[in-house]
């Protein structure tokens, strides 16, 4: 038996971050949406032991990792049910690594879903969210893979209604450490404007009043992010342009599919070395 699950790119439409708690964790408020057709793919097949094969354009980047999140998710699910972790996993890595669009978290969530079916556990979604949350704060949202609002330190996840948004995703070919961005955020004394009580309309007009609090420290660490933001804004001044997550990927929200395709072509022509995708966020 083989089970295949799509692991869509996760885009933080906004990300508001407060000053850290005494334990070092940051309160946050964010709405995340997922790309309809841009993401990784996880395949699980029955086997006598647990293994992971990496494929795809970014598979080699992960080959040196000591412990992939997909394997950790598999072991966590098996341990929860007191069962042996036996599956041959294949990860087709199409998303840039350490890029702020939830690649590793989405892969772990897809593995939880695939193995839950393969192993016949029939665990409800809250159980998968709980197990994923132990591995990473973004994984519960990726278990949903529908638009969600995340609060607390990322563990409070609630589905939200949202009209699909046409978008262009861009990564300028750099990887950025989330921990490094948060350190820069704290060193700059940011987070004083945090307020998780505001509700935004989840369209281009409403989201224009929100922001990504990690954008400034991320751009300071990696100027390529600023270049990507400028490139999108210059080629479509009417788009809503923002960084996703802790970077380095950025996105532009535009009016329709034709506008998204035209913007993606323009950016790709200007910077053929960048990763550029037009998609729908939903």
What does this protein structure show overall?
Helix content is 34%, strand content 27%. With 282 residues, it is of the alpha+beta class. It folds into 2 domains: 2-159, Ribosomal Protein S5, domain 2, CATH 3.30.230.10; 165-281, GHMP kinase, C-terminal domain (Alpha-Beta Plaits, 2-Layer Sandwich). β8 and β9 form a beta hairpin. α8 crosses α9. The chain starts with a strand and ends with a strand.
User: Mean of the pLDDT scores?
Assistant: 96
The profile of the biggest β sheet is:
6 strands, mixed
Could you name the CATH topology of the largest domain?
Ribosomal Protein S5, domain 2
How far apart lie the N and C ends? 30 Å
- Helix/strand/pairing class, anyone? alpha+beta
Spans with pLDDT under 50 lasting ≥5 residues?
none
Q: Strand content of the residues, in percent?
A: 25-35%
Instruction: Report the CATH C-level class of the largest domain.
Output: Alpha Beta
Task: Give the secondary structure arrangement, pairings included.
Elements: E1 2-17, E2 28-45, E3 50-55, H1 59-62, H2 69-80, E4 87-92, H3 103-118, H4 125-133, H5 139-144, E5 148-151, E6 156-159, E7 165-171, H6 178-187, H7 204-207, H8 215-221, H9 223-235, E8 240-243, E9 250-254, H10 257-270, E10 275-281
Parallel strand pairs: 3-4
Antiparallel strand pairs: 1-2, 2-4, 2-5, 5-6, 7-9, 7-10, 8-9
Helix pairs in contact: 2-3, 6-8, 8-9
């Amino acid at each position: 038996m083989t089970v295949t699950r799509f692991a869509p790119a996760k885009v933080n439409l906004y990300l508001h971050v407060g000053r850290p708690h005494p334990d070092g964790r940051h309160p946050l408020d964010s709405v995340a949406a997922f790309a309809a057709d841009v993401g990784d793919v996880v395949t699980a097949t029955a086997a006598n032991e647990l293994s992971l094969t990496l494929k795809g354009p970014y598979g080699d980047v992960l080959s040196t990792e000591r412990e992939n999140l997909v394997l950790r998710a598999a072991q966590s699910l098996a341990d929860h049910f007191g069962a042996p972790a036996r599956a041959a996993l294949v990860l087709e890595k199409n998303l840039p690594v350490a890029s702020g669009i939830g690649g590793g978290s989405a892969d772990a969530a897809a593995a939880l879903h695939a193995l839950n079916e393969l192993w016949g556990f029939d665990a409800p979604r809250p159980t998968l969210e709980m197990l994923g949350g132990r591995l990473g704060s973004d994984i519960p949202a990726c278990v949903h893979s529908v638009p969600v609002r995340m609060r607390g330190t990322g563990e409070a996840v609630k589905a939200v209604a949202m009209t699909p948004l046409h978008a262009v995703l861009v990564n300028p070919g750099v990887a950025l450490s989330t921990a490094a961005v948060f350190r820069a955020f704290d060193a700059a004394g940011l987070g004083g404007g945090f307020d998780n009580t505001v509700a935004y309309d989840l369209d281009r007009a409403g989201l224009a009043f929100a922001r990504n609090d990690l954008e400034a420290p991320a751009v300071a660490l990696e100027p390529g992010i600023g270049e990507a933001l400028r490139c999108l804004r210059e080629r479509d001044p009417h788009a809503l342009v923002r960084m996703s997550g802790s970077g380095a990927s950025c996105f532009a929200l535009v009016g329709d599919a034709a506008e998204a395709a035209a913007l993606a072509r323009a950016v790709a022509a200007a910077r053929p070395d960048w990763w550029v995708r037009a998609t729908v966020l939903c």
